[in-house]
Each structure stands twice: as C-alpha cells, then as structure tokens.
From TrEMBL:
This protein's UniProt keywords: FAD, Flavoprotein, NAD, Nucleotide-binding
A Pfam family that the UniProt record links to this protein: Pyr_redox_2
Listed name of the protein: Oxidoreductase
Annotated FAD/NAD(P)-binding domain residues: 9-321
Sequence positions that bind NAD(+): 185-192, 272
GO molecular function, one term: dihydrolipoyl dehydrogenase (NADH) activity
Cofactors (names): FAD
PANTHER family registered for this protein in UniProt: DIHYDROLIPOYL DEHYDROGENASE, MITOCHONDRIAL, DISULFIDE OXIDOREDUCTASE
Keyword presence, NAD: yes
Length: 477
C-alpha cells in the first residue's frame, strides 16, 4: 500500500468529541472507512470540561438539597459537603483527564485516529499537523465532517488576560473551591456553576446583564432558580454589567457599571460560545474562517456536496444530546449517499432529517430546583405564528411532589396549539423534574393529540401526575 493510499478514507471526521464519535460509529457500522482527527482529548468538551464533570459536581449538591426536604432525614445532612470527596469523584468521571478508554473505544469500532490539528486543504482534503510538527494530508472519498465544537467567549475588557479568568473549563476542573467567586452571565453554565460552587463552600456573586436567569426558558424558570440561589446565600444581581476587572495581588477586583466594587478570589465568565473554526481552513473551500456552518437537515453544509457539520459548530442546539442526534442522522445520510442508489428520507421526521432541531429540543438545567424544557416556549410559539394557549400548574398541588419533598416548590407549563390540539412545548421547574422531561419530549415529537393524552394515565402518587393536572387546567380554562 502506498503512502497516498494509506491516507485515503471514505469519511474524515474533524473532532473526536461525543458528536464526532457518533458520526464515526454510524459510518463504520455502514462499512465505510473512517478517519478521526483530534487535537486534544478523545471524548471532547463534554467528557472533560462540560457535561460529565459539571454533573459530577452538581449531583451531591442536589441530593443534599433533596434530603434536607425529607422529614426524618434532614437532620442527618445539615453539615457541609465534603468538597475534597466531591472533587475526587469529579476527577474519576473525567478519568483524570486521560483519554485511554475513549481511544480504545474508537479503535474498537475500526476507526483510525490521527492526533494533531486538522484543517481543510481544499475539496475533500484535510491536512493534519501532528504534535511533533509533521504533516500528512488525508483525503475523503465521500465526506468530511466538521465536529470541532465551540469555545467559551471572553468579553473585550482591557487587561482581562492578566486577570486569568475562569471559563467553563476552569470552573469544571478546579481542584479547590475559591473562597469568593464572581460569576458573570445568566445562562445555563452560569446558573449551574453558581449552584455548584456556592454549595461547595464559595461565596458566590452572580452578575447578570439581563433581567434574569435562563432567558431562553419560560420566565418563571429563571425566577425560581435565582430565588433558590439567593436563599442558599449567593448574591444575585440582575441588570448588571462588568465595567472593569483587575487582579491586585491574589485578589480579583470587579467594578460594575453601577460603580460597585466587588472583590473575589476568582471570576468566571459564562458569557457565550463561539465556533472552533478559526484555524480550520474554511477559506480553502470558499467559506469564512471562524464562522458557524449553516447546514440542511441532513447536516450537509449549504452549497457543498461533501462537507458536513454537526454539533455546536452548526449552531442549531449547543447540547451534547442534540449533537449526537444530528450525528446519527449525518452518519446515515453519508452512508445512503455513498451507496449511490441510496434514497434519502428528508421529509420532516424522516430518517435523514434533524427535524427535532427545530421543534423539540429538550434540555435540563441541573440547578436546585432543576429546570427542564422541550419544544417551544409560549413566546417562541407566538412568534412562530401558532395560535396557542399556555396552561400553568403549581407543582405543590401534585400529591407525588409533596411526598418527594416537604414544602415542594415548582411550576409546570404546557403550551397547546389550539388549532391542531397538540402540545408545542412543556417546561417543568422543581426538584427531580429532569426525569420528567422525556415524557414531554415524546408528547411533542409524537404530536400526541390532547384527546389521546387523557388516556396516558400517570401513576399515583408520582410527580408525573402533573400531566393530569395540566390537562385538567387546559380543559377547565
């Protein structure tokens, strides 16, 4: 075999995070030779700096909060969390930032791993610069898939680099709790990391530029989470921007636009994400470096016959589970197109169409209380032109909620399409609601008629009885 032949594959995947791994799994299952290029750890952001470590930090926090609401148990869990044990458990879930197991899995499916920085070098060509500086060019017979994810964005503040701010990576991998932590942002990362570090011993000040937290969910979600953070001891300030940040010795000094001066040991900026396409060679195929990649529902980049993009980089839904969903569809689409006579099912909800990206994206925010949603919020449904009505239920009225936690606080909303009599969106906020959201996802994706949902009887006494309360509220409105 010549060197040129050894560098030729049916599919080349740029990025070995969960999304890239799923593309490789599906293309290999279809019998296509697949190369995967990764410049960091195989397993990607989710495994080492996002989903897994953040949830390992948050699980003890939420479990303790739940236990404190159970009569007969609350006195047993009044002390502080064992921060060192929590951090050690987090380290275990990141495999101490070693990717041996992930590499073994990737090689086990028959994909070939190339370590180094990959960038496009023209049509169907990927140049890989290895850690030792050597370069080789891979060619793809059928497809190149960009699965390079996104990176945290820092604001343009003078001298910020000298402050050494945290991003989501430092927040999920820190080996000790800072005494004082300022968190800047109002989204999921900000809310989750404020929850985790406040419970692990930090005094948290949360600075939110907007009106409240979790602005992409129903307004009551952010209100309930902010209220719980305040009750836990965090200082939550909305309508507040950062004017300047400096580090004086070991102290971070933050000045807000209102003139307030806040001192801290660390500062976390959770203020958005940008695509990791800066040095990807997009210009060699007529695209703009550093840009998000626009794709059709089969994951193919607009204007290309061979270039695909999945996960964060496509800017559809910056969530691991949604990226893996896209990856399964893209893998199947590439295989069908490679077969020559393969017929693609790209109709809505077809096998090669990522329809859920538009209509049924589920998400859980692992705060205390948890916030979970799927589909459209009331405002989104109205902007989309649907004639809808929202029905709300106080979760404390559900028998199972009261048994789950003494003094249970939470809220549920169902957005109903009045013309089609189906559910367009659902939001739950309260302890334990993350496990409810898949039932809502099935209702939204399946476009289950309201008349049929009446026959989906929830078990008593569980929190899922909220479904009956929501249907009753809709009927009686």
């Amino acid at each position: 075999m010549t060197e040129t032949e050894s560098n030729a594959f049916d599919v080349v995947v740029l990025g070995a995070g969960p999304v890239g791994e799923n593309v490789a799994d599906r293309t290999r299952a279809a019998g296509l030779s697949t190369a995967v290029v990764e410049s960091e750890l195989v397993g990607g952001e989710c495994s080492y700096w996002a989903c897994m470590p953040s949830k390992a930090l948050l699980r003890p926090v939420i479990a303790r909060a739940d236990a404190r609401r159970v009569p007969g148990l609350r006195r047993s869990v009044q002390g502080p969390l064992d921060t060192s044990e929590v951090l050690a458990h987090r380290n275990y879930y990141t495999s101490d930032w070693k990717d041996d197991g992930q590499v073994q899995w990737l090689e086990g499916i028959g994909a070939r791993l190339f370590r180094g920085h990959g960038r496009l070098a023209g049509e169907r060509r990927v140049a890989v610069t290895a850690p030792d500086g050597t370069e080789r060019v891979l060619t793809a017979r059928h497809a190149v898939v960009v699965a390079t994810g996104s990176r945290a964005v820092l604001p343009d503040l003078p001298g910020l680099a000298e402050v050494r701010p945290w991003t989501s990576r430092e927040a999920t991998s820190a080996q000790e709790a800072p005494g004082r932590l300022v968190v800047v942002g109002g989204g999921v990362v900000a809310a989750e990391m404020a929850t985790a570090w406040q419970a692990l011993g930090s005094q948290v000040t949360l600075l939110v530029r907007g009106k409240g937290l979790l602005s992409r969910m129903e307004p009551f979600a952010g209100e309930l989470v902010a209220g719980a953070l305040t009750e836990a001891g965090a200082d939550v300030r909305t309508g507040t921007s950062v004017e300047s940040v400096t580090r004086e010795g070991g102290t971070v000094v933050v000045v807000t636009d209102g003139g307030d001066r806040i001192e801290a040991d660390e500062i976390l900026f959770a203020t958005g994400r940008a695509p990791r396409t800066d040095d990807l060679g997009l210009d060699t195929v007529g695209l703009e470096n550093g840009s998000w990649l626009e794709v059709d529902d089969s994951g193919r980049v607009t204007g290309s016959e061979w270039l695909y993009a999945v996960g964060d980089v496509s800017h559809r839904a910056l969530l691991t589970h949604q990226g893996k969903y896209q990856a399964r569809i893209v893998g199947a689409a590439i295989a069908a197109r490679a077969a020559g006579d393969g017929v693609l099912d790209t109709e809505p909800w077809g096998a090669h169409a990522a329809t859920a990206d538009h209509a049924a994206v589920p998400q859980v925010v692992f705060t205390d209380p948890e916030a979970a949603s799927v589909g459209l919020s009331l405002a989104e449904a109205e902007r989309a032109g649907h004639r809808v009505r929202a029905v709300d239920v106080d979760l404390s009225s559900v028998a199972g909620a009261g048994l789950y936690a003494d003094g249970y606080k939470g809220r549920a909303r169902m957005v109903v399409d009045l013309e089609e009599e189906i559910v367009r969106g659902v939001t739950f906020v309260g302890p334990g609601v993350g496990e409810l959201i898949h039932s809502a996802t099935i209702a939204v994706v399946g476009q289950v008629p309201i008349s049929r949902l009446w026959h989906a009887v929830p078990s008593y006494p569980t929190i899922s009885e909220v479904w009956l309360r929501l249907l009753e509220a809709y009927r009686d409105a």
